[in-house]
UniProtKB/TrEMBL annotation:
Keywords: Nucleus, Transcription. Coiled coil: none annotated. Pfam families: RPAP1_C, RPAP1_N, TPR_RPAP1. Residues 153-197 are annotated as: Disordered. Residues 116-159 form the RPAP1 N-terminal domain. The keyword Transcription applies. InterPro entries: ARM-type_fold (IPR016024), MINIYO (IPR055326), RPAP1_C (IPR013929), RPAP1_N (IPR013930), TPR_RPAP1/MINIYO-like (IPR057989). This is RNA polymerase II-associated protein 1 C-terminal domain-containing protein. Residues 211-288 form the RPAP1 C-terminal domain. Belongs to the RPAP1 family.
Length: 1272
């Protein structure tokens, strides 16, 4: 900043009209290309803002700039910026030249060449009739190459009405990795969406916000009319600073401000105007965020109403987009000399990074999940589909901007060379792709460090630390940048220095949160914090002398609230360290304070002082910490086998907790199982939940019980792990006395209800009420708000896991059981305990599973609409700031759907645990459905398929369990049987008389499971970064140590849980959530014939049982999958079974195609609304509005004609006139296919001279009429 490198404003007079004579300006124009490249690119933004400006003000000392008369970009140029790939910062002087050529006026009033050409073309078209225009168009099309015509058409559609500069060519658009187009929401579109009306409509919605005017409180006042637009010499941006400076009476905000005018005020010479502009931006962004939060996820459905009066989604996308350059303005304002400007700027950045919304999401996720893993908030987009992947969507996620762009100087050896490459315009481009990355690249971290060193006001500290937390959650590279910033972490630690005071500030709480977030990225970072005393300094509140609950309540509710928030964050920081294997020995130091929160208090005292929620939060986190400690226990009986407690665990495994500490902790947990003694929970057991309103206290207590159950389950896992091989024959020598106590506590305290026959004669031993906690939680899940639903589903999941763990431990201890276990088996409760808890509450289990299945079926169609245009969101913000309705993937509803799906898999796993398998037990569960033996199979398969569409990053284990259920041999048998029923209904000539052996079922199950895991669940390996990260020391392999102790560590992994290396998940480098058509990958993405055969049988079976997600896959994708399968595996048609299945699928999809065609023609003769009401699927609603039902080029890929030509080549080369292959090729000649694809297929067939190899019309797919019209 001192040297002003690259900020050469010596030629600024070129851009000011009134100070430069026309002749001199013309000479300057001729010499533009001779200017140095670095200076020219950095002056592009000056050219954008200062062309023809007579009021431009530059203040070199403060880096501020007031906009000139054309401070707003013209409509044409702005529309151009809103289209991906159209706006590029090119080499040399092309950036200024293009801006001058986009319909703007030069300084001397002469129009540009592009404007003259456009005016001439418009005049010619105005003098031609419609027939003459059509004739001229036909003449042009005949003379030009069809491929070139298609390219020009696509470019025209992408421009959305903007005018393209003729001097721009393709080479300049792709010149250089960082000189490419400015990234905007929706830049990386899927191939089928680039020409879709949805993208055009979205662009128009965003562009409309340019003229939207806002009040100071963020409300929308209206839109500028066309009469209010500037006529070339006068703009609102020119006079906004002057009129607000002069207007001291009346209402200064009466007419409102546009976003660009607010940004102009942030660069005013008057500090009050700068504060006004920043405050307006904060109000607008805050209002947009809260309105996005109120929107429902269903609003993301394609074709949503774009004429809404208050389109807050578009407001958010425009504000964070590349055109306003918001990040650059905020970074400049943060360097202001006035404290009020800096404070307001920090507030705007805090809102722009969606700090509050994101923290709310992460707070809930840490409450619900025992071993929490945070997800990076950096914006992402999908990689484009390719032909090798069968054009299937659902590619690997990528970051909006390359991680190397966040720190441009990172790892550069030649400092001078890196300075030449780094320009302000590069920073602007990166900020248009990712606002958080742009802020870090522009040097916000050193500025925050210097501000914290100056001891700012407390509210400013809060905002600054919040910004650091939001940036730390962005990506691993952002966390590295914070750790590498000199003295920044030390400045945060100074906030935690109480200097003898017991007062707690919110900045201290957020400082602990920052340390926790940074620790989660890397085990070595956490170890450094522990060794350097950071952990000790952050946990100061747990080193205080022991105190009573009365002492804690005495300071008042506000102090209790702050104390609770601080202790919760400290416990989460401790839990993070425990997960890495550190700080476990601190348990004895913290226990005097910890024991206060482990026993049930006198709830009346807490309710009187209104601090029950705060107490419950601390108690919940305390038990979550105990659950994490329990996971660090050695296996109970493996310790005896080794013969000693100290087994010489290597340092890489960290510390272990001792079993001597477990028994008192379990006894404290058991005291929380007496539900009737806990207010707000006894009403759930008494059946009063239907008549009472759900309170926050009730949700907090349910979450507390959930953490208690999770801690008990973690302890039982270390007695007898779930994944032990030969579990039936594996016996435990003895079990602790608290195991049957846990089982009896669940049975006798009203967690479950039992049938009447079981209770007869033993009413005194069981709760007399018929309503159980499970039923109350089910009602809470179905009818409560999001908070209540999340807490109830978490508690239910922990309860199911704990009951299964109790059964597993007790069943394995039947031989040499303890005396307490023998005594506990007396009476009815003991009988239930001996037979197994989970086997005797089938009523609750099946009723709850029945109520959950419709929820799963309704959730996945809504969630799949979140991902629009191949992106995780519509704005380059972070987390919630991706700009999707309701928060999208970052909404609590999405988190709830994922928890529902996990619980459904848990319940189905229990149901299918018997040897007969899933389908047999399903038929036995409901004896009423004997008439349709496959109905229950469909009811189980459909929700599991729905679960596969809901699972997000980090839920690979959930999908693995789903795949294990779907591809069981018993399920494949059921699907094979259903195929016979389908064949008889369709009256197929072949009724699948062949059989599949048991070995083949096992083989098909294995190959399908293996294929889908490798295709969809694999993590893309990152390329080794040549620039080593600051914590790279932990990644160096210790070859000698590993080779010497590999056998010992394999044995040790059965004794001690190995610590994790990171607690953070990245959206990038993985594929989840899956696309709706993921089941087609086995057909069109595999070269293995066995995988394709099994995939065909599986797909036909799903169609036969009418599994909902498979029905929702568009017909065009199914037809494409069949074509791709024969293109890669001609052997499929050589084997009888796969040939029959392939033909049956062709017949089935042909009938579906005929139905859609009939509905299209009916829609032309009757009211369209009646047809829409009769349509079965959403896809049909979209399809019947056009006769092109099979829109391969639009839906699959823009270069689909090349794929069709390759299919025809394969048909001509190896098919030898095979009828089934010919039918698949002939579908591209159907009238429902796009004209370009039909033409390409016809040309390829005629060129290869294989038209005569096509089957006769009566053997083609679908109705004969589909091939006779149109007449060509």
């Amino acid at each position: 900043r001192k040297e002003k490198k690259g900020m050469d404003f010596s030629r600024w007079r070129e851009f000011v009209a009134d100070d430069v004579p026309p002749k001199r300006r013309q000479a300057k124009k001729d010499n533009i290309k001779k200017i140095d490249h670095v200076a020219e690119v950095k002056n592009v933004q000056v050219g954008e803002r200062g062309l023809g400006g007579d009021g431009m003000e530059l203040d070199g000392g403060n880096g501020r700039e007031a906009l000139g008369s054309t401070g707003l970009v013209s409509d044409v140029s702005s529309k151009k910026l809103m289209n991906a790939g159209d706006a590029s910062v090119t080499e040399g002087g092309a950036g200024v030249a293009e801006l001058r050529g986009e319909g703007m006026q030069l300084d001397d009033g002469e129009p540009s060449i592009a404007a003259e050409i456009n005016a001439e073309n418009t005049a010619r078209l105005a003098g031609m009739s419609a027939e003459e225009i059509a004739e001229a168009q036909a003449d042009i099309l005949n003379r030009m190459d069809p491929a070139l015509v298609e390219v020009l058409r696509r470019r025209g559609r992408e421009k959305s009405g903007g005018k393209k500069d003729e001097g721009k060519d393709k080479s300049r658009q792709t010149s250089g990795p960082r000189k490419t187009a400015k990234a905007i929401p929706g830049e990386h579109l899927t191939a089928g969406e680039q020409s879709a009306h949805s993208w055009k409509a979205w662009s128009e919605r965003v562009e409309r916000i340019r003229s939207c005017r806002f009040a100071l409180d963020g409300d929308i006042l209206g839109f500028q009319s066309s009469q209010e637009q500037p006529d070339g010499k006068k703009t609102h941006g020119e006079s906004v600073a002057e009129r607000d400076f002069l207007r001291t009476e009346g209402d200064p905000a009466a007419v409102g401000y546009t976003i660009n005018e607010a940004l102009a005020l942030t660069r005013s010479m008057v500090p009050g105007q700068r504060v006004l502009g920043l405050q307006l931006l904060a109000s607008v962004l805050n209002r947009a965020l809260h309105n996005l939060h109120k929107m429902d996820l269903a609003d993301n459905v394609e074709g949503a109403n774009s004429e809404k009066a208050y389109d807050w989604q578009a407001v958010w996308a425009y504000a964070l987009g590349p055109e306003p350059e918001l990040v650059l303005s905020l970074r400049m304002a943060l360097d202001d000399n006035h404290e009020s400007v800096v404070l307001t700027c920090a507030k705007v950045i805090n809102v722009m990074l969606s700090y509050d919304m994101n923290e709310s999401y992460f707070d809930f996720s840490e409450k619900l999940i025992n071993k929490t893993e945070d997800i990076c908030t950096a914006p992402v987009f999908r990689s484009k589909p390719d032909v090798d992947g069968g054009f299937l969507e659902g590619g690997f996620w990528k970051y909006n901007t390359k991680p190397s762009n966040i720190l441009p100087h990172y790892g550069e050896d030649d400092e001078e060379e890196s300075d030449e490459k780094h320009t302000i315009q590069d920073d602007v481009i990166v900020s248009g792709q990712d606002v958080a990355a742009g802020l870090i690249r522009m040097g916000i971290l050193p500025r925050i460090c210097s501000l914290l060193e100056m001891d700012p006001p407390q509210i400013q500290k809060d905002y600054l630390v919040s910004i650091l937390v939001a940036l730390a959650r962005h990506s691993p590279q952002s966390a590295d940048a914070i750790l590498n910033c000199t003295k920044l972490v030390q400045c945060v630690l100074k906030l935690l220095d109480r200097q003898g005071s017991t007062e707690i500030h919110s900045s201290m709480i957020r400082g602990v949160t920052l340390l926790k977030v940074l620790s989660k990225y890397n085990r070595q970072t956490c170890l450094n914090f522990v060794n350097n005393g950071v952990f000790h300094q952050a946990m100061w509140q747990w080193y205080l002398p022991a105190y009573t609950l009365k002492d804690w309540i005495k300071p008042g509710k506000e102090q209790c609230k702050l104390s609770s928030a601080m202790m919760v964050e400290q416990l989460r920081f401790w839990r993070t360290c425990i997960s890495y294997g550190f700080c476990i020995s601190h348990f004895t130091d913290f226990f005097p304070v910890l024991c206060l929160w482990l026993s049930p208090p006198v709830f009346q005292n807490l309710s009187e002082h209104n601090v029950l929620t705060e107490f419950s939060s601390i108690a919940r986190e305390s038990f979550l910490v105990l659950g994490a400690l329990a996971q660090r226990l050695p296996l109970l009986h493996s310790v005896e086998q080794f013969g000693k407690q100290d087994m010489g665990v290597p340092g890489s495994y960290g510390e272990m907790w001792s079993w001597s500490h477990v028994v008192p902790m379990v006894n404290s947990a058991l005291s929380w199982l007496h539900l009737n003694d806990i207010p707000y929970l006894c009403s759930l057991i008494n059946g009063q939940s239907e008549n009472t309103t759900h309170t926050p206290e009730q949700s907090c207590l349910v979450l507390l019980i959930s953490s208690v159950l999770g801690m008990l389950n973690s302890t039982l896992e270390r007695i007898s792990p779930e994944g032990t091989p030969d579990s039936r024959s594996y016996c435990l020598p003895w079990i602790p006395d608290f195991v049957p106590k846990i089982g009896l506590g669940i049975i006798t305290n009203g967690f479950f209800s039992f049938s009447c026959t079981e209770v007869v004669g033993h009413e005194e031993q069981l709760p007399s009420r018929g309503v159980s906690l499970v039923q109350g939680l089910c009602h809470l899940r179905c009818w409560g708000d999001v908070d209540a639903s999340l807490s109830s589903i978490s508690c239910l999941q922990r309860l199911v896991q704990l009951s299964c763990s109790v059964d597993r431990v007790i069943q394995r201890a039947t031989t040499n059981s303890s005396e307490h276990l023998k005594e506990s088996k007396a009476g009815l409760a003991g009988k239930i305990l001996q037979e197994g808890i989970s086997s005797l509450w089938h009523n609750d289990l099946l009723n709850f599973l029945t109520s959950l299945l419709p929820l799963i079926s309704s959730q996945w169609p809504v969630l799949k609409n979140i991902e629009m245009f191949g992106r995780g969101g519509l704005a380059p913000g972070v987390g919630f700031g991706w700009g999707t309705c309701g928060g999208g993937f970052w909404s609590l509803k999405c988190l709830l759907a994922q928890l529902d799906s996990q619980l459904v898999l848990e319940l189905i796993k229990i149901v299918s645990a018997v040897p007969e398998g899933l389908v047999t037990l399903s038929k036995g569960a409901n004896s009423d459905n004997v008439t349709n033996p496959f109905a229950n199979a469909s009811e189980r398969i459909s929700p599991v398929l729905g679960v596969s569409l809901i699972a997000g990053p980090g839920q690979i284990s959930t999908l693995e369990r789903a795949f294990d259920i779907l591809f069981q041999p018993s399920v494949l048998k059921c699907l094979k049987s259903s195929m016979h029923c389908l064949a008889s209904q369709m009256k197929l000539p072949k009724t699948f008389e062949w059989d599949i052996t048991e070995d083949e079922y096992q083989h098909f199950s294995s190959v399908l499971n293996s294929h889908f895991r490798s295709r969809w669940l694999a993590i893309k390996k990152k390329n080794p970064d040549k620039h080593a990260r600051n914590n790279s020391a932990i990644n160096k392999p210790k070859v000698p140590e590993t080779l010497e102790t590999i056998q010992e560590e394999m044995e040790l992994t059965e004794v001690v849980n190995p610590p994790c290396s990171t607690l953070v998940l990245e959206w990038a480098h993985q594929r989840l959530p899956l696309p709706a058509h993921w089941i087609l990958s086995s057909i069109c993405c595999s070269d293995d014939a066995d995988v394709s055969r099994a995939g065909l049988i599986f797909l036909l079976g799903l169609e036969a049982v009418s599994a909902a997600p498979s029905l929702d896959v568009p017909l065009v994708w199914k037809m494409h999958a069949l074509s791709a399968s024969v293109r890669t595996n001609m052997d499929l048609l050589q084997e009888d079974r796969s040939k029959d299945v392939f033909e049956a699928l062709q017949e089935l999809y042909g009938k579906h195609l005929d139905i859609l065609c009939q509905k299209y023609y009916r829609s032309r003769s009757v009211n369209n609304d009646e047809v829409v009401r009769s349509v079965a699927t959403v896809e049909e609603v979209k399809v019947i509005s056009t006769h092109e039902i099979l829109r391969f080029k639009e839906k699959i890929h823009e270069s689909y004609t090349t794929f069709v030509e390759s299919v025809v080549d394969q048909f001509a080369a190896v098919s030898y006139g095979d009828v089934i292959f010919g039918r698949q090729v002939a579908i591209y000649l159907h009238r429902s296919v796009e004209t370009t694809v039909r033409l390409a297929a016809w040309n390829a067939l005629s060129t290869a001279y294989v038209l005569e190899l096509l089957p006769p019309l009566d053997k083609c797919i679908g109705d004969v009429k589909g091939y006779l019209e149109p007449l060509e």
